[in-house]
Amino acid sequence: MAMVTVSQSFNFHGFFVRKASLLPSSASRVRYSINDRRWLNLDSASSSCRFRNLNSRCSITNTDLHLSNVLTEDEAPQDLSAAECDCSTPIVHLKTDILESESLSLLAETTYVDSVLTALPVLSEEEQNALAATPAHPVGLYALYASSLAGNLVEQLWNFAWPSAIALLHPSLLPVAVMCFFSKLAIIVGGPLVGKLMDYSPRVPAYMGLNVVQAAAQLLSATMIIHAHTVSPTSVSSVLLRPWFIVLVLAGAVERLCGVATGVAVERDWVILLAGMNRPIALAQANAVLNRIDLICEIAGASVFGILLSKYEPVTCLKFAAASMIWSLPVMIGLTWLTNKLATGVLDRPRSCQTCCGESSEEAAVDAGSIVDRGLETIKLGWKEYMQQPVLPASLAYVLLFFNVVLAPSSLMTAFLTQRGVNPSVIGGFSGLCAFMGVAATFLSATLVKQLGILKAGAAGLVFQASLLSLAVAVYWSGSLSQQSPVLFFLGLIVLSRLGHMSYDVVGAQILQTGIPTSKANLIGTTEVSVASLAESVMLGVAIIANDASHFGFLAMLSLLSVVGAAWMFCRLLVNPTDEQRSLFAVESNT
């Protein structure tokens, strides 16, 4: 190893170069010290460009050369025998007269710096906007859209199918509430673990594996519900203890955990690589397209299964759902592979040095006790990273919205409307219109951000949602839901409130995308989903206790308070931000 250092020192009227020879040394590092001086005077006419106290240093370090001596032309080696014995590398001579007057005259020219600066290419504002709006891998992004369409269509169909089919088994909210509760519990515990596993695993194989597990869990769940419809109905307490229901709960928990993990991978990692982190317009457009795909699939899934359920038996509809799961899986896997291939293998890129290097073999060979300890440490790490976010209030406002388990197109709302005798096509239309409001919100949010800024746009969405849900709760407590018109008005207010909810969802997603490094995207993203699932599981626990349909008004009031709390927390961030948040949203604070 060697280090060669050349120092130059510029003064007001000249500069000097110091030189000296190195004596042989057995050390591997060679230092080039400087002894005497050579003065070169500059012309006074060219001294208009003054260099006061300007020092430059050129260093060559960590090279593969092994130098035993460095000499100048005018100095002779004093002891070459020792050098020849230690190393056979030839002696390197450094010339001190390489700085010619012709080169020095360039530094004296006043136009030199200007010519260098003007030679740099500068993009116009239109060219910069065009570059920011162009995805890094547009063809791969289109393949990702197709893969999301195939996967979300089946997932949204199943999300509407299973609570409707279970609600027809017994007139109680308890079975649906228990299934939702354990699904959220699985996300709370397993979310950070799966997130870290995906951070340390190749993207494409891990994503495909989770899709296979999710499809298998959906098929098992459909089989259990079909079996439940073929046996004689029993009381709700005995249903919870049936083997098929226990298997259904476990399969549903695995299915939801896999669905959350794949969703986080696409929204927090894949889309950033394909659209480009440094291309904000392209990233915003990709986020909007993915949201529209998800919501369009929700519209189609709820509408299709609602129409089928109004015309056919539940078992026939469940068989149709199972068949759709089988054919969509190979299509989705093929499109995922095609996405990576069209993106020139960008999804194979390692996330960071930490994930690239991995863990040592000693750390990998651990016993069961160490695995449990590491799992607990991963959960703690996920919560720690989540709580250290600079935009934590915005994320907590998003989490508070998950306390709203009934004033939304949720499983409990589906079960409640089914038990009140509402036509399945109306229930499917309600879920479809809620999703349509989400599609409209992807267009509205862009306009709101442009007019109000990202923070004020988020606050406007939350206040709008809280206002409409307050009216919906007032309609419910008026006691007129026994008639069809008040029911439709009640559902209409909830549909309109989804416009504000989804506007905030779109705005908050981009804030988190740009603020979380890709090396921690899955860990923090799944932890956030775990926190949201914890909020939802608390409300589901309340629903398990108050499982009678007559307690729906109490659950609606709790849901309303959570939305009002989310609006208050975000508005508090808007009015009184911290210094770090001011720097993050400096443009908005000045407007």
What labels would you give this structure?
single chain, about 600 residues, mainly alpha, Growth Hormone, Chain: A, 2 domains, two-stranded parallel sheet, 23 helices, about 70% helix, disordered N terminus
Write the layout of secondary structure elements.
Blueprint: E1 4-10, E2 14-16, E3 39-41, E4 54-60, E5 70-71, H1 80-86, E6 92-93, H2 101-108, H3 111-119, H4 125-132, H5 138-167, H6 174-199, H7 203-230, H8 236-240, H9 243-275, H10 280-311, H11 314-342, H12 353-357, H13 361-364, H14 368-387, H15 392-400, H16 411-419, H17 424-452, H18 454-477, H19 484-515, H20 521-545, H21 552-575, H22 579-584, H23 586-590
Parallel strand pairs: 5-6
Antiparallel strand pairs: 1-2, 1-4, 2-3
Helix pairs in contact: 5-7, 5-9, 5-10, 5-11, 5-16, 6-9, 6-14, 6-20, 7-9, 7-11, 9-10, 9-20, 10-17, 14-20, 15-20, 15-21, 17-18, 17-19, 18-19, 18-21
What report would you give on this structure?
Mean pLDDT is 74; it is low at 1-118 and 353-366. The chain folds into two domains: 130-349, MFS general substrate transporter like domains (Growth Hormone, Chain: A, Up-down Bundle); 374-590, Growth Hormone, Chain: A (Up-down Bundle). A four-stranded antiparallel beta sheet has the order 3-2-1-4, with no helix packed on it. Helix content is 69%, strand content 4%. It has helices at residues 80-86, 101-108, 111-119, 125-132, 138-167, 174-199, 203-230, 236-240, 243-275, 280-311, 314-342, 353-357, 361-364, 368-387, 392-400, 411-419, 424-452, 454-477, 484-515, 521-545, 552-575, 579-584, 586-590; strands spanning 4-10, 14-16, 39-41, 54-60, 70-71, 92-93. Helix 5 (138-167) runs parallel beside helix 10, helix 10 (280-311) packs antiparallel against helix 17 and helix 17 packs across helix 19 (484-515). The chain contains 23 helices and six strands. 41% of the residues are buried. It has 591 residues and is mainly α. The longest helix is centred in the middle third of the chain and has 33 residues, at 243-275.
